[in-house]
Structure formats: C-alpha cells, structure tokens
Specification:
The complex is a heterodimer.
Chain A lengths: L2 H21 L2 H17 L10 H22 L18 H8 L3 H7 L3 H12 L4 H8 L3 H21 L5
Helix pairs in contact in A: 1-2, 1-3, 2-3, 3-7, 5-8, 6-7, 6-8, 7-8
Chain B lengths: L4 H8 L5 H13 L1 H18 L3 H5 L4 H8 L8 E2 L8 H9 L8 H20 L7 E2 L14 E2 L1 H9 L11 E7 L5 E6 L3 E8 L2 E9 L17 H10 L7 H9 L4
Antiparallel strand pairs in B: 1-7, 2-3, 4-5, 5-6, 6-7
Classes of the chains: A mainly alpha, B alpha+beta.
Chain lengths: 166, 257
C-alpha cells in the first residue's frame, strides 16, 4: 500500500465526521464517505504531492454532496426541515436514538443552513485555515469569513437559547 | 479601540496579522467587555472542536476501509455488505419500490445492484470454473447480496484444514469466529483470495481480492499468502483469536455446528 492509500485510510475517521456534518444522517454520511473515496481514487492524478490531502478530499466530498443533493432534487424530493430529521421516512429506532444522542452543539450545528454549517465545520471542527477552507469550498475568502461569522452568531444564539451557554 | 465581531472571530482563529493579534491582546487587558467577547468565542470554538467527536472513536465500517484501499498494491478487496437483521425489511422495500421517494433514493436504490453485479462477476471469475453462486434475493430479502460458495471452494471451506495438503484448487487459511458468532475462514485460490462465513448450512463469500501470487506459482504457507486487504476485513470481524489446528479440526469434524 502506498502513502496515498495509507493517508486516505488515516483520514477515514475525519472524513466520516465531515460527512456526518454534511449529510447529518449516519447512513447517508457513510454513503457519502464511500462516494468520496471512490472519486478520490479515480482523480488521483489531480492530487498534487505536497498539498494537504485532507483539504483536497473535503473538496471532493463537498462536490459529491452537491451532486447528490441535485440528483435528489431532480427526483422531486422536498428537503425535510432539520426538525423532521433527515430520517422522516426512516423511523428506525437506531436512527432515532442516534438523533437523540446528539449533543446540544451538534444539534445546533445541524440546524444551520448548509453553507454556514460547512464553513464552520471546516474551520472550527477540522481546523483548516481560512484559505484552506475557502479553497475546499471553491469560494472567495470574504464569502467564507462571512458564512463563518453568520454561523457563529447563530450557534451562539441557539446554545444560549437552550441554556447550554458556551 | 473598537474591535469588530469579525476581528474577534479572526483573533480566536489565529487568522490576524501578528501586529493586529498583539494589539487586540493588549486591548483585552484594559477592556473587560472585549475580553468577555473573546472568551465567549474561545468557548464556542472549544465546544465545536468536540462536535461529532464520537464518530472518530467508532469502528470504521469494513466497506469504507475496503473503498480506501481499493486499487492499492498488492491487492484490492471488494467487501460485500453484510446483511443485518434490522436492514432486511428495508432491503426488501428497496427491491420492490426502487422509485419510492425515500429519504435516500440515490444512494439506496443505486447501490445494491452494483454490489450484486460485482459479486456475480468476481465470483464467476474465481480460479477454475464456478466456485460460488450469487444468491438471488430470497422472499424475505435475506442475504440478498452474499454469494454462496459452491464446488471446490465450498468443499475446501467445509472440509479443508490450513495444514492439509493442497489437494484442490483452493486452500483455506485462517479459521476464526466472527463477532456475530459465525465460523469464518479465509481462502486462497489461484487468482483470488477472500473471506467466507458459514451461515445456515452453507458458506457465504463476504469479500474477495486478487490473490498474492507466490513465485513459481507454488502455494505459500497459510497466513503468509493471505493478502493484507483480506486480513483487514478479518481484523474487523474477528472475535478473539483465530482457531488453532485442534480447534479447526474439531469444527470440521462437528460440521461447523
């Protein structure tokens, strides 16, 4: 196994975490992770040695998620609001349990609009720099910092609402 | 000095030029309100850094490990999803209503046929002749995606021992009990290796990988010949230690019951 594959294996826990933030539903998140791994392998020649593999893979994941969301939209799916959960039609006990087990901060994060949620996750959970996060999302720095600011403000308000003062 | 919210965020994120960072650090000592705003953001940052940390501690699903090592030298593994009791009903629904507006139509509908097709191709290509039959979806949707070993593969899995002479085209490697309490064995054919588990009287192939071929086409000793990717699948499934020769012989004699 070469270092590309090894690094990808090492990144798996973080890729799954990022997928959890994007997809919210654990099963969807693992499907998204799998799609990301498959795409990363087919686009391996686009990976530049010496650049961060995590940022590169987060970008692939983000694009895979956009493609996935579009294909769902084409199928006429109306996106469920976060309160209904991503599992509105899948009331399996296990999934409900996993929703209930979310911490206050995870629930507040899940309730953010997707663009803010992604910016917050890349910088504040994954620890990417502003530049790396902006590159991953293929957006200008100013757009990233404004999404980050709106996300933070909303999180702060939500957490204070719940009495879980950060 | 006036410090905007954006500057507070960037300060906490360490994204300001060093001189601005220093200026704000100095201002905090004289401005309790500013210090409180910064502290609140530091707290939020710390809280967020632990969000979904539970995912990091979870065992990685074998299918993802397999996907990450797919194409890696010296071997690649195709791991078939193991049917779990709670998924049976869902699987059946997917098969019957592929166009139903479920919450994850694109993933759920697209994937099983792909896996099933791969299983069929790979298994048909195993060493000499047909070694396993892809199992058709049963009425209750059970084991819809796991191929059943037949012919020499089934025979080796059923009666073979790791130490025994390689009388057929397939050798068995490690024998172990899975976390679900099933007997499982790794096997090695001329071109493919894999893992199979005993379920309801037959052997189901869970994963296959190109075999690690020995120089001169000779079989190597059990264990050393098993591709690393197959061993990774074993590591995910195994409960306790592999069976020793005596345990293996006893299980064969008892017909894997």
């Amino acid at each position: 196994m070469d270092s590309f594959h090894k690094d990808m294996l090492d990144l798996l826990p973080r890729l799954r975490r990022m997928a959890r933030v994007l997809a919210r539903d654990p099963a969807d998140a693992d499907d998204l992770t799998q799609l990301t791994l498959e795409r990363a392998l087919t686009r391996r020649d686009q990976w530049r040695e010496g650049t961060r593999q995590d940022s590169w893979m987060f970008r692939i994941m983000r694009n895979a998620w956009i493609d996935e969301s579009r294909s769902r939209a084409r199928r006429g799916r109306v996106l469920a609001p976060p309160e209904a959960g991503a599992n509105a039609a899948d009331p399996a006990a296990q999934t409900l349990d996993s929703r209930l087990a979310l911490t206050a901060v995870e629930a507040a994060l899940d309730a953010l609009p997707e663009d803010q949620r992604t910016a917050v996750a890349l910088v504040l959970i994954e620890g990417l720099s502003y530049q790396e996060a902006a590159d991953s999302l293929e957006i200008p720095m100013g757009t990233l910092t404004s999404r980050l600011a709106r996300g933070r403000t909303a999180l702060q308000a939500a957490l204070i609402d719940q009495g879980a003062r950060p | 000095m006036t410090v905007s919210d954006e500057e507070v965020f960037a300060y906490v994120d360490g994204e300001l030029p060093p001189e601005t960072m220093a200026r704000i650090t100095a201002a905090m000592t004289k401005d309790p309100a500013l210090a409180a705003r910064i502290q609140a953001q530091k707290d939020l940052r710390r809280l967020l850094s632990g969000a979904h940390a539970g995912v990091l501690r979870e065992a990685i699903p074998p299918k993802l490990k397999a996907a990450a090592t797919n194409g890696a030298k010296p071997a690649e593994v195709i791991a078939f999803p193991q049917p779990k009791p709670k998924e049976k009903a869902k699987d059946r629904i997917r098969v019957q209503k592929p166009a139903s507006p479920s919450t994850r139509p694109a993933f759920a509908v697209r994937k099983p046929p792909v896996w099933a097709a791969m299983a069929a191709c790979l298994v048909a290509g195993l060493a000499v002749g047909r070694l396993a039959l892809p199992s058709p979806p049963t009425a209750d949707g059970r084991a819809a995606e796991l191929p059943t070993a037949v012919g020499p593969l089934a025979q080796a899995l059923e009666d073979g021992t790791a130490a025994g002479a390689a009388s057929g085209p397939v050798r068995v490697g490690v024998t172990f009990k899975s976390q679900a309490g099933r007997y499982c064995r790794t096997f090695q054919g001329q071109t493919q290796a894999g893992v199979a588990c005993r379920a309801e009287g037959s052997w189901r192939v869970l994963a296959v990988s190109p075999a690690a071929t020995a120089a001169g086409g000779q079989y190597r000793q059990a264990g050393s010949e098993t591709p690393a990717a197959v061993m990774a699948v074993v590591d995910d499934m195994i409960a306790g230690a592999p069976l020793d020769a005596a345990g293996e012989a006893q299980a064969v004699k008892a017909g894997w019951r």
